[in-house]
Specification:
The chain is mainly alpha-helical. It contains one helix and no strands. The radius of gyration is 69 Å and the shape is rod-shaped. Keywords: Membrane, Transmembrane, Transmembrane helix.
């Protein structure tokens, strides 16, 4: 009986030993699986973080590009507006210069016309004065001639009367 007990004890020991080894193997396998799962989860999280960072970087780059494009468009619009304003100012200046030149030309023409009219008026006045002087001279001459004729007639009459 003793031997059977001993054998039973050995058997139970071997069984428990095997069971312990099996349990250790299962625990190691479960730990390895858990470690692998944790590593995979960490890798997936890192990949997701990297993808999110890349997406954020791309979005920031796109926003910066859009802002730069908008700034360039605004600058071009401002430059075009300034150029148009300068062109309009130049056109207005040219129009004002042309108007001033035309006004000066008209003023000069009016001054020349007035000078010519004054000259003509002076010439007409001089002619009228000369004509009046000539008429006065002619009248004086006629009066003198008439006086001389009257004197001659009176002298002739007096001589005639004296001779009788």
């Amino acid at each position: 009986m003793n031997q059977i007990q001993f054998l039973f004890f050995i058997y139970i020991n071997i069984f428990f030993s095997c069971l312990c080894i099996y349990l250790i193997i299962v625990i190691v396998i479960v730990i390895v699986i858990v470690i692998v799962i944790v590593i995979v989860i960490v890798i997936v999280i890192v990949i997701v973080i990297v993808i999110v960072i890349v997406i954020v970087i791309v979005i920031v780059i796109v926003i910066v590009i859009v802002i730069v494009i908008v700034i360039v468009i605004v600058i071009v619009i401002v430059i075009v507006i300034v150029i148009v304003i300068v062109i309009v100012i130049v056109i207005v200046i040219v129009i004002v210069i042309v108007i001033v030149i035309v006004i000066v030309i008209v003023i000069v023409i009016v001054i020349v016309i007035v000078i010519v009219i004054v000259i003509v008026i002076v010439i007409v006045i001089v002619i009228v004065i000369v004509i009046v002087i000539v008429i006065v001279i002619v009248i004086v001459i006629v009066i003198v001639i008439v006086i001389v004729i009257v004197i001659v007639i009176v002298i002739v009459i007096v001589i005639f009367i004296n001779n009788i």
